[in-house]
Amino acid sequence: MIMNNQTVISQFILLGLPIPPEHQHLFYALFLAMYLTTILGNFIIIILILLDSHLHTPMYLFLSNLSFSDLCFSSVTMPKLLQNMQSQDTSISYDGCLTQMYFLLVFGDLESILLLVMAYDRYVAVCFPLHYMSIMSTKLCVCLMVLSWAFTLLYSMLHTILLAKLSFCEDNVIHHFFCDISALLKLACSDIHINELMIFIMGGLVSIIPFLLIVVSYVQIVFSILNVSSAHVLHKIFSTCGSHLSVVSLFYGTIFGLYLCPSTNSSIVKETAMAMMCTVVTPMLNPFIYSLRNRDVKDALITLLCRKKSSL
Ligand SMILES: *[C@@H]1O[C@H](CO)[C@@H](O)[C@H](O)[C@H]1NC(C)=O
């Protein structure tokens, strides 16, 4: 809690979505359905990869980490949004707000780093197919995952500590449906230069560098595809890289749409819609993109269902 001359801010008010009251129920049902789909889809992916030994390859272990991250990402915002849509009291405590912001940063950044790790995995698989197993050893995979998690946990802690140092005055209304770091900075009444600088530098590093590296690895992949003549190998490359590329486009498309669009015509509605895309739609679609385009995942699902049936 931050002490101020006149006020002590112990809670924030989340204004929520700009939805007219007569449509509240419709949107509530829609968001609930989307949230349940996200939970179910990602949960199935994690279970399939856990149970099917054919899927114990680096690519699928990374995918199950991505699904876990997606699941958590939408669980940070959606339950609170759904609860707020139902009740009159849309406040969130100061600690609750910072906690939400912290985990939002953790899972958002984890997503971008996991996509990078998965791109590297595809690059090795396509460009060095014969050495794939020795390069992507269990040791390296575990190492990459531990580093990704450790990095995002610390990185988000940095932003959260910097934010916790700020003091907040009378205005505690957040024009958003979750505790967004930029929305909180707008409410602060102490100097936020250092926060903005860190977001600019670190945020840039965390989103631009993975994106550039992903582009570089795909350029390499395209060059090595040009030398492949076997249709079977080409098909395999397209199916695994295609899923990854779709997820990457979806993720970075919404991020760039959110932050790089000209801010002159950006209304609250547009901003909210883009934030919805990031936190709800992307995590919901990822498991479908992977399972619908991918034979291995489909086979694993069929095997699992058949096994259940025969054991009954
Ligand atoms: C994440 O990846 C690591 C390393 O490949 C793996 O051991 C672990 O089971 C994965 N975690 C989840 C939740 O899928």
Automatic annotation (TrEMBL):
Keywords recorded for this protein, A-Z: Cell membrane, G-protein coupled receptor, Membrane, Olfaction, Receptor, Sensory transduction, Transducer, Transmembrane, Transmembrane helix
Keyword RNA-binding attached: no
PROSITE patterns noted in UniProt: G_PROTEIN_RECEP_F1_1, G_PROTEIN_RECEP_F1_2
InterPro entries recorded: GPCR_Rhodpsn, GPCR_Rhodpsn_7TM, Olfact_rcpt
Transmembrane segment boundaries: 26-51, 101-120, 140-158, 197-225, 237-260, 272-292
Topology with respect to the bilayer: Multi-pass membrane protein
Database matches in Pfam families: 7tm_4 (PF13853)
Family membership: Belongs to the G-protein coupled receptor 1 family.
Protein name: Olfactory receptor
